[in-house]
Each structure stands twice: as structure tokens, then as C-alpha cells.
Amino acid sequence: MVPALILVAALIAPLHIFKDEGFGEESRLQLLLHAFYAKIEPGVVWFTDKLLRSRLLSGTRPGRFVLKLIAKALWFLPHGVVIDHDAALRLIDNLPEDSHIAIGPCLCKIGAGTREEPFYTDMVIMYGAKAYKLAHPNEYKYISKEEAKDLLRKFREHNLVHEVYACFEARSWAFVVCNCDVRYCIPTRSQLTVREGVYPGPLVAEVRAEKCAGLEECGVCLKVCPFKAVVAAGDGKSSVDPAKCMGCGLCAYRCPQGARGLKPRPGYDPRFLPIHFTHPGLAEHIKPENK
Ligand code: SF4
Ligand code: SF4
Ligand code: SF4
Predict the structure, then answer these.
(1) Which of 165, 227, 255, 279 could make an SS bond with 260 (beta carbons 3.0 to 4.6 A apart)?
(2) 195 and 207: one domain?
(3) Enclosing domain of residue 185
(4) In this predicted model, which residue has the larger pLDDT, 150 or 272?
(5) Ligand nearest to the CA of 265
(6) Closest ligand relative to 255 C-alpha
């Protein structure tokens, strides 16, 4: 596995110089390289799952230090940005009409040895759809935009987190809208363990305290937040730790009082997120160098 990873890095590292090409259908070389990665990805995921499950590594401070170093060394592998549900729908709507979307199995669940439903949650887009179809022709199925949006709605009902992934942290390598169960999702578990793997989205949760019933009386947001970002305010009402909030919006969707919402994250760096597709009105909140 390690030699295969080194080979992937050696093959695709030079292409990093094209990182700012934009978000779209990319070259045949990129397609083939990603199809090769898609072939070995089940092994990569299985290996990483075992690393994260090791109590010696994730349960001790020196072990977490080692995990952090490994995560940093694997920077070229897919990393994610969390997006809210409306942004995921907009992204699908804004894809060019001739681009592809395909749905396939959740590799993180396979790596963890489960096929728990919903199992087909890996929504590959653009050149990613073609790459995964090439690598796993029987497991990925092309779907329409309407089918993709229906699936996203279904995934939200299961409290799955939408995450856009790219290789090399480059917009032109954004290839998938993953729909992640944080009990299995390797990048999200890595984020929760060593703060590497997934980046926050452009929005952050906010609470209208006057509407909140209180964490003791209600506490729905506390239960549903995958990132442990719900905290108690002094008066027992629910509040947000913005440093931990990834902006998934699940708490706002589930709050029975309509007390929670999402607002723009100040000074946001969109990294590789195709933000003009996902959050077209947010330009003024984005770091100047990323506009
Ligand atoms: S990143 Fe998410 S959807 Fe993609 S394989 Fe992992 S858990 Fe499944
Ligand atoms: S779910 Fe809504 S009402 Fe319930 S504790 Fe959280 S913010 Fe308050
Ligand atoms: S506080 Fe809400 S929006 Fe933020 S990570 Fe938790 S569930 Fe998602």
C-alpha cells in the first residue's frame, strides 16, 4: 500500500502546478491518473481505517502526533470541505448540462467492514464521475441532476454530512460530493482526532437564544451535531463553538424551535471549494486573494 501511495504521489505531484485551472472537466491525463487512484482507493481507505482505530495511535498524545504527521504527509490525497444542504443542491444545479454525475458505494463503510444503509453515498461529479466509472464500471451508476438532488435530500434525512472533496487542495481536482456518516467517514474521523482531513464550510451556525428551549429540555442540536460544536451558554441555552462548527447545517434543520440558522463565516478561505457554484452571494466574505 505505501509503495502504491508513493507512486500516486510521484505521478500526480507535477500536475499540482495546474492547481488554479478552475473547476471543470479536466484533461485525459488527469482522468486516467484519478482512475488509477480510484482503483487503489479501497486499499488506502482500509489502511487508514486501521490507523484511526488503533488505540495506541488515536488514544494517546504521542500517537496522535504521529497520526498528524501522517495526515500532513498525505496532503495530496482527497481532502474535504463541509457544505450545507442548500449549497449541495446548488452545486448540482450549477454543474454544466453536459457534465456527468454518478453514484457509488461508500468506501469508508467498506473499509470499516459494514454495508449499513444508506450505502451508495459517494456522489462523483464532473471528471470524477468518469474516473470512478472507468475504475469500477459495475459499482458506479450515472444519474441525472434530479436523481442526484433527490438522493441529497434522502441523505439529509439520515443526518449525513455533505462534503466536497478535491485532490491536491486544488479546485480543478474537485471530484465528489460525499455524504458522510461520521461514525465511518475517515476524513471526518481524522478531523475529529487530529484536525486534518476536512475543512469548515463557508457558513457557521448561529442561535437565536430567545427561541431556544434550552439544552436540558430539548438538546436535539447537541445530539445531532457531528462535530461536537454545540455548547451550553451560561443560561442553559444552546450556543455554538465557531472553531469547531463545520457549517453542515444539520442542527438548524433538526431544531424543533427554529432557533438555529447559518450565517457567513467571517474571513472565509474557500480553499478548493467551487464557491461560485455553491455560495454565489458570498464574495464579500471571502479572503481577497481567493476571490
Ligand atoms: S468520504 Fe463520506 S461518502 Fe465518501 S467514502 Fe467516506 S464516508 Fe463515504
Ligand atoms: S435544538 Fe433548538 S431548541 Fe433545542 S436546544 Fe438546540 S437550539 Fe435549543
Ligand atoms: S453546530 Fe450545527 S452547523 Fe455547526 S457543525 Fe454542528 S450541526 Fe453542523
Answers:
(1) 255
(2) no
(3) 8-199
(4) 150
(5) 3
(6) 2
